[in-house]
Amino acid sequence: MSENTSTETIWLTQDAYDKLAADLDHLTGAGRTEVAAKIAAAREEGDLRENGGYHAAREEQGQQEARIRQLTDMLRRAKVGEAPANSDEVAPGMEVTIAFFGDESDTETFLLGSREMLGMDDSKASVYSPQSPLGAAILGKQPGDEVSYDAPNGKPISVTIIKVQPYQS
């Protein structure tokens, strides 16, 4: 996690915030109890060095605690609001289509925001953070605007905003 990551705002709808908060409540309550019970049951089986159930339960506990930390941080940084209802301006929650270097045959469509923002489970959808180089460059722009940003390798990339619309799940 970068130094700035913990201070970046995460945009969430109220439904997505509520879903993540409920997930956190489950993990810190019943989830922890379930994993502790699995560890205790595996301990009773004897030799821990060769106890696959014990090691699996400890691994599950580690993953669960990491998810708890992630959710806690995410909810702490969340700004709750609805995706814009109808706007031609690039903002979090909008689906944006851009053309690279003005070439309308080389386009990409993506959501500006975060997967958590709208409760997205589809890992196939492209999502860019408003804090990413591309996201920061197009934020507040409108269709027809051309902007440039520096790629991670330092090369400038020019994009033209083709279309902006509210994200439809």
Structure notes:
This protein is α/β, with parallel strands linked by helices and 169 residues long. The chain has 2 domains: 5-80, Helix Hairpins, CATH 1.10.287.180; 94-166, Chitinase A, domain 3 (Roll), CATH 3.10.50. It has 3 helices and 7 strands, in the order E-H-H-E-E-E-E-H-E-E. The strands form 2 sheets. A 5-stranded mixed β-sheet has the order 5-4-3-7-6. Strands 1-2 form a two-stranded parallel sheet. Helix 1 (14-43) runs antiparallel to helix 2. The longest helix has 30 residues, at 14-43. It is elongated and about 65 Å long. Residues 10-80 form the Transcription elongation factor GreA/GreB N-terminal domain. Keywords: DNA-binding, Elongation factor, Protein biosynthesis, Transcription, Transcription regulation. One of its GO terms (biological process) is regulation of DNA-templated transcription elongation. Residues 87-165 form the Transcription elongation factor GreA/GreB C-terminal domain.
